[in-house]
Amino acid sequence: MLRYIGKRILQMIPTVFGVILVTFVLFNMVGGSPAQQVLGPHAQADTLEQFDEQRGFNKPLFIGRRTTTRAYADSDFERTAGDWQGVNGVVWTNGTIILAAGGEYTLPVKFALRTDCKYDLEIEGRAGGITMLGREQLKLSKDWKKIHLRVKTLEKIAPSGAPVEIRSIKLRRIMSQPFDSQFVFYLTRLAHLDFGVSSSTNQRVSKLMLDGIGPSLMLAVPVFFIGLITSVMLSLFCAFWRDTWVDRFFVVFSVALMSVNYLVWIVGGQYLLGFKLGWFPVWGFEAVRYIALPALIGIFSGLGAELRFYRTVMLDEMHRDYVRTAQAKGASRTGVLFKHVLKNAMIPIITNTVIAIPFLYTGSLLLESFFGIPGLGYLGINAINSSDVDVVRAIVLVGSILFVIANLLTDICYAAVDPRVKLK
Asked: Among 164, 327, 328, 394, which is disulfide-ready with 159 (CB 3.0 to 4.6 Å)?
C-alpha cells in the first residue's frame, strides 16, 4: 500500500502543477489588469504601478528580457497624438507626430522612471536624424525605420538637420535576467506558503484563510455528517419497506426537496424560524447557536438528492444473488440490510462522500453570505465582488489540492471496505 501511495503522490505533482498553471493563466492573462479591477479605471498610473510592483504583475508573464511600464503607454499615433498632444512644438498629422528641427523634446511620462533599471526606447520614424543629448547622432532614412535606444534616465530628443516624423514610440523596462517573471514570482511565493496580500483588506491571505476555516468547518461538518447519516438510514428504511406506501412517500418527499430552489429554503427558514417564531438568530456569528439554523437548512435542503441516490444504491443491492442466498439461509431482513447490503453499498457511498470532503473547508457560499458567518465561503464571495485576485486564487488552489488528495483517500477507502480491491 505504501508503494501505491507513494506512486500516487508522485502522480499528483504534475496535476497540481497543471492547476497552478491554469489558475495563473486565468487570473494573470484572461482577466485583464488586476490593478485596474481593484483600483478602478481612473486610478493614477503611479498607483497602478505600485500595485503591480508589490504583487509582481509588472514582470514578463513567463520569460523575457523586456516588460511594459505604466510610465508611458505605447503610442502609435494613428488616431491621436496621445500624451504628446500638450508638448510644445509637436504637430500631429496623418497618423504621425512631427518634431521640429532644432527643438528638444522629453518623453511625456506619467511618473519618474526607476533609477535602478534600464529602459529600451523604441522609435519608428523617418526623415531627419535624432540626437539624444550627450550621445552621438542616430540616423533615420526617408523610409520608415525602427531604432532602439537604451536609456536609464529620460534624456531629451533633439531632431537634427530636418524635422522627424514618428509613427510609434514604445518604452520597455529591461529585466536583469529573463526568468524574473510573474510565473516564477508566483511559484516562489507558493513555495514559501505565501498566497499574497488581500487588496481589499491589506492583510495576508494565509491569515484570512486561517481565520475563516474555523467558522466554515463549524457549519460544514455537522451538515455533512448529519446529512450523510440521515440519508443513509432513510435509504435503508426505504429498502426495508420497498414497494410499499412508506417507500413511495420518501420518493415523493425527496423529489419535492430537490424541486425547491436552495434560496427558498434559506429565505423561508430565516423568515419563519428566525423572524416570525424567533427560535434562531438570523445573522452573525457570536455563539454556537448562530450555526443551528443554517446547519438545519443545509441538512434539509441537501437531503432530497442524497436520499434519492442512496435509495437507488440500496435497492440495486437488494436484488443481488448474495441477498437471496442470505435470506435462504435464514438471515433476518434487518441483518441482511446492515450486515450485507450496507457493506456492499459502501463503494458508491464512499465515492459520493469522500469527493465532497474537499469542499467542506469552503463551507457553503450562500449560507455563509445570507447568515453573515465569517467563513471561507463568505470570504470568497466578498473577494469576487471586490475583484480580490489573491484571495480567490488561493481558495481555488487549496480546494483543487484537497480534491486531488481526496481522490487518493477514495482509493484507500475502497481497499479498506472491499477485499476484492487491491492497491497496485
From this structure: 164
- CB-CB contact of 307 with 231 (8 Å): yes
Residue 220 gets the label, from left (phi > 0), alpha (psi -120 to 50) or beta, of alpha
| Beta carbons of 363 and 298 less than 8 angstroms apart | no
Grid coordinates in use for 404?
Answer: 486531488
Q: Is 192 helix (H, G, I), strand (E, B) or coil?
A: coil
Inter-axis angle of helices 245-259 and 205-240, nearest 10: 150
Instruction: Please tell me whether the overall predicted TM-score, pTM, comes out greater than 0.85 for this model.
Output: no
Q: Per CATH, which fold does 82-174 belong to?
A: Jelly Rolls (2.60.120)
Tens of pLDDT along the chain (424 residues) come to 677 777 778 888 888 888 888 888 887 777 677 777 777 778 888 888 888 888 888 888 888 888 988 888 888 888 888 888 878 878 888 788 888 777 788 888 888 888 888 888 888 887 655 554 445 556 666 778 888 877 777 667 777 767 788 888 888 999 888 888 889 888 988 888 888 888 788 888 889 888 888 888 888 888 888 988 898 888 888 887 887 888 888 888 888 888 888 788 888 888 888 888 888 888 888 777 888 899 898 888 888 888 888 888 888 877 777 777 777 777 777 777 777 777 777 888 888 887 777 777 666 778 888 888 888 888 888 888 877 888 888 888 888 888 888 888 877 777 776 666 666 6
Q: CA-to-CA distance for 414 and 208, rounded, in angstroms?
A: 35
The secondary structure element, H or E, covering residue 35 is helix 34-39
* CATH no. for 205-417: 1.10.3720.10
CA distance 210 to 397: 15
Q: Judge whether 227 and 235 are in contact, CB under 8 Å.
A: no
Domain ranges of the chain: 82-174, 205-417
Q: Residue 356: name the closest of 225, 166, 193, 164 by CA.
A: 225
Measured CA to CA, the distance from residue 272 to residue 221 in angstroms comes to 25
